[in-house]
Fold:
Amino acid sequence: MALIYIKNMVCPRCIVSVKEALDQLELSYSSVELGEIGLDSLPSLYQKNQLAESLKSRGFELLEEGKSALISQIKSILIEKIQHSDEIMHETYSSFISERLQHEYTYLSKLFSQVEGITIEKYITKLKIERVKELIFYNEKSLSEIADLLGYSSVAYLSSQFKKETGMTSSEFKKQDRQTRRSLDKI
Structure:
């Protein structure tokens, strides 16, 4: 099996889009997850170039093995955990990331900061705030339930981070005619 890493895969629709590209190119795959494709065999250079073009036309980018692929994996893991899971975390993000990627967290953290210009912790905060905006927008949970779901120690701490990141309180955000949410691949 050959693993290929993809940049900008941030949601279940992205997975569907990548599967369509693979099917059109008749590339046999065993798995497609956020940021990662498991191909049944190594693609030829021609197939890899075709895949790169097809993915590019869909807003994705084929990543070569290495540091940029590792950054993409960190982002995909965090997006999957924060945006697409309703499970409450029972471990720290640092141990979760380190365990999933089989690298020491200090190395991953330093690499992420160098490449992205922000810390992993700041990235996590930005993802959490986007999730808070989504949950407020759809009015599915109370602020207390949102704080619990996203691992905040209190509603007050969630509120202060929300205000710091958005410049407004959650109530002000909810009252807006047009709530501003950012695309996850732009974070």
